[in-house]
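Handout, section 4.2: multi-component inputs.
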Amino acid sequence: MEPALTKSRCFHCGSPLTAATSLAVRVDGTEHPVCCAGCEAAARLILSQGLERFYEFRELPGEPVAGGLHNWAAFDREAALRRYTHECAGGERELSLQIEGLHCAACAWLIETSLRREAGVRAIQVNASTARAELRFDSQVTTLSHLLARIHALGFVPLPLSFAGGGAEGTAERRAALKRLGVAGLGMMQVTTYAVSLYAGFMQGIAPDLEQFLRFVSLVVATPVVLYSAQPFFISAWRSLLARRPGMDVPVALSVGAAYLWSVVSTLRGRGAVYFDSVVMFTFFLLLGRYVEMSLRHRAGLQHDALARLLPDSTLRLTGVEAERVTPDELRAGDRVRVLPGERVPADGRIECGSTDVDESLLTGESAPRVRRTADELTAGTLNLTGVIEMTVTRTGQDSTLAAVSRLLERARGSRPAVADLADRVAAYFVTGVLLLAAGVALYWLHADPARAFGTVLAVLVVTCPCALSLATPAALAAATTRLARAGVLVTRGRALERLSAADRILFDKTGTLTLGTPRLEAVVLLEPRLTAQQCLAVAAALESHSAHPLARAFKDLTASAGVSEVQSFAGRGLEGVIAGTRYRIGRIEFVREGCARTAREVTDDPGRTSVVLGDTAGPLAEFHLTDTLRSDARETIQRLAALGLVAGIASGDRTEPVAAAARQLSNVAASANLTADGKLALVRALRAEGHQVVMVGDGVNDAPVLAAADVSVAIAAGTELAKVSADLILLGERLSPLAGAVETSRRLLRIIRQNLAWAVLYNLTAVPLAASGFIEPWMAALGMSGSSLLVVLNAMRLLDRGAGRPPTEPAPLTEVAHA
Amino acid sequence: MNVIYLLIPLGLGLLALSVWAYFWAVRSGQFDDLDSPAVQILLDDDRAPPPAAPDPRDA
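Output:
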């Protein structure tokens, strides 16, 4: 049965399908191809439960279902249950899960609906914005491992959060911010209504007692807004003063406080101007900007311990003769652990017996696995590919290599010179200026008319209210981040966009960033015409289906010939197996030659290419050329970036030849290969020392310190958690081109911020002397303040318009920035 | 115009009531996920799950 190849993408995960695959799922009578057995299983499970609507409503295609070995059994042990769950009455247990691969409401619905049908599940609530799930189940009816396995079978990776450090803080922070925002918003609506009446009263006349009544009511409503909603500004201003680094919060707190106090005094005295409407509106818009910023930070899921995700869910600890599954955090130095092929190494350690290939790409960036034998050191988080090994744990937790990487990261982040952001620089001058002015006015009036000194100083502080000034940046940032999120770029630190607009160098990691990170079959070269290419591929696919080696993934889409027996894996060399009576070997050429009777013809040895040779006992049969293909839009993105003035470069930990090959394909960008994390760091520092503004794009653990040191860091969503934590921007999906759109948006953002700041400064410069010399009526000042704040907010909203994702009006011939 | 002395305090009462209702809604988690519920109404349907949905691992 040939599947209808109407779409050349996997039905489940959306990966492009390279070879004709025989795997397919049937939906409403139509065959849809899928890319691998993992995706097939997930799709079948979803369809068998009648949940096919998931595919209709989801916003992004899923991630390929990882073939990695997950063993959830360790979570059923008493120690793990105590650590991760909370016991309720009647044998029910509650826990929080972080769910990887959860992108949209449809994913959340899928997990909820599917798990509710499991016996023993009492309640499940999945939050799509935070990728968290709250699960309550009856431990007498079902097991935690069964439920985790079910979520995993749907194509997601559940990570139980330890109960003590669970996700409560994020929720609490979000709820507190929402309450403050709500109070400010409701207060703003009321106070603005009263203010309109008061303004009308100024112009048409108003009964004095009614005016006084409206002012008093405004005071009543504005008080909770100032004392409750605006509280964070006062606290943070006070802290920044204690730390002697006055930021934007100082003038904000100063003017909110001064304007409020002034208005209270005026209200109680029954004369003078009131500014309640400005105070409340100002507070609301500022809180709104901060709330958007916080939501984005939470959405990026940066609260979770990033290192823990690199460790396996469980590992086999050997005690005497017995082996038991434990979670990695239960391991102590000196423990003996068995690591099976396909499992991650749970802690740093030394191999006691066995040899294997280890994929260390997470740490080194090198795509080719290393051979590790007895007495070799292993690093936590690396992937055991081929052999069963036993190791002794030497370091865990804070002493481990992973912890060291994370400390390197902290240092790199700390050493990033504090690039004063535009608004902060302006704020610093502004604060100093206002305070000097106020002091000058105070001095003058203390000599001229001491009785009026206090009132005049307050008036100066109120009129210099930097509403527009302090709204200028956050409002524009909120609009820009929203726009970018629609285009597939998550901004985790809004201020980085300012630096992105000024960047002139961009460095890419190769494996997993410029490339897809998975090898693909490029060509088959027949060495002897005993078998056809098709037959060779079938044999290779059958053998490689028994391997967890990254290169084996290149063969997973192919139809394998049946009946492999006696499969044996040789670390660092290849695989051997018997098919239909013939003994085949696949792997390195030397390994294949050793297994045959006579020497065969030479194999072309191009160091720039990764190749695998297949042979039988009579000699090598075929050579398969594998490449890690570049992302489809890598070249186009680099050209667009070049048009925007960003010179691209490659900084890779991989070997020289593949890096050079990638650089050639990308119209000869500068490339550095064989770089360690320190080497990349040095490269970025050197570029920065030359005065360049550097953007770094990466995905691996080894990229994390570099990401932290660059002016702007970008991580790929499919990359490691550590890289994402260090990143200012996260690219969602499989495409690089939103990056160019992000640069354009950031430049437009900077233009808008400059316009806003110019307007705010101009307004304050004209208003202060006019108000000081008595030319401005109080109501005009209040209206002007609110008006200029509104103008700034509306100007910022221009970043959102012209349709989602459409590039701004740059003259360059640009293609649509739409997400897949 | 005297009615305004009655209406505005009434408005304040309503304001207090809405703040209370809003706090209750936030506390009970109604604002925790603003994306899913909008789509869930479309996804959930009344069709019963197919009866024959054997779980391979239970078999």
